[in-house]
Design a protein that fits this description.
Elements (H helix, E strand, L loop, with lengths): L4 E4 L5 E6 L5 E6 L5 E6 L6 E6 L4 E5 L6 E4 L31 E6 L5 E6 L4 E5 L4 E2 L19 E2 L11 E6 L2 E6 L5 E6 L1 H5 L14 E6 L6 E5 L4 E4 L4 H14 L4 H31 L1
Antiparallel strand pairs: 1-2, 2-3, 4-5, 5-6, 6-7, 8-9, 9-10, 10-11, 12-13, 13-14, 14-15, 16-17, 17-18
Length: about 290
């Protein structure tokens, strides 16, 4: 019978496995030299696990083995290991190398298990080809922010919502959610959170913790994404429909917009009001003189 186990990250440098039926710890996975901040089960292989810690390493585990660690991912390796198949079979064990130059606090698999995405305090997001263990060298630019000692995991969009060979990746920045092409690193869209934008700290001020986006999740079988925030709110994101666009156009027509046409109409109204005011003043002056 399949064991119902939960992998737990904590301040301890070992990953703890908990049996949900009994609530007891089955065993620990020792190998990290710093606090474990993130864990992620392989989506296809129930025995494979990835973890990230404050020691800058992203480590792979096979929980069935006595020597559970399969080795670490190395950001300097863009070629990979011959014979590596994502579960350590036929590959030499690698114990040297760091995934990030700072704490690793995020790890997410693609749904087919071919890629692993990691995030760290070096404010980098790395994509790993898990058929070889190589760093794909995808560059996501300087927009990423990541300095918290909490889990900050990226979210990979379901394959049916992404173009072939161009998986979409979402990153929880403090006051926005960034959408990237996972392989090229191209920034595709910024999803702004209005309430959090207003609370953005100014330069030199104390960091506003309530402006943080803390986690992202997909709603199964729906085109909806949910985001959790440190101000206690949970927001739902969905694609804009033609009805939404029509509603926005109607609102713009009612309230007036700041486009060239709207500015021109506003200028003409102001000129007409001024003409009426001038004529009214002249009429009052004439009446005053005649009396």
């Amino acid at each position: 019978m399949l064991a119902l186990q939960v992998a737990c990250a904590s301040q301890h440098p070992a990953v703890r496995l908990i049996d949900l039926r009994t609530g007891s710890s089955t065993h620990s996975l020792a190998g990290h030299s710093g606090s474990v901040l993130t864990v992620a089960w392989h989506p296809k292989n129930e025995n494979l696990l990835a973890s990230g810690a404050t020691d800058g390493t992203c480590r792979l585990w096979d929980i069935r083995k006595s020597a559970s660690s399969l080795g670490v991912l190395d950001s300097e390796d863009s070629i990979g290991i011959v014979g590596y198949d994502g579960v350590g079979t036929g590959a030499r064990r690698r114990e040297r190398g760091r995934a990030h130059s700072g704490t690793v606090n995020g790890a997410s698999w693609t749904e087919d298990g071919r890629y692993l995405v990691s995030t760290g305090h070096d404010e980098r997001m790395r994509v790993w080809d898990m058929t070889t263990g190589a760093n794909t060298l995808a560059n996501f630019g300087p927009a990423l922010r990541n300095k918290r000692l909490t889990t900050l995991a990226p979210l990979v969009a379901p394959s049916h919502l992404s173009p072939a060979g161009g998986e979409l990746l979402y990153y929880p920045n403090p006051t926005e959610i960034l959408s990237f092409d996972m392989h090229s690193g191209t920034l595709l869209k910024r999803l702004r959170v209005t309430a959090l934008q207003k609370s953005r700290p100014t330069e030199g001020s104390v960091r506003n913790l309530t402006s943080q986006t803390t986690s992202l999740a997909w709603r199964a079988h729906h085109i909806e994404m949910f985001s959790a925030h440190a101000d206690g709110t949970i927001r739902c994101w969905r694609p804009e429909t033609w009805e939404d666009a029509a509603t926005e156009l109607e609102e713009d027509a009612d309230t007036g917009s700041d486009d060239d046409g709207g500015m021109e109409r506003k200028r003409k109204r102001q000129e007409l009001d001024q003409i009426v005011q001038d004529l009214t003043k002249k009429r009052q002056n004439v009446l005053g003189q005649s009396t």
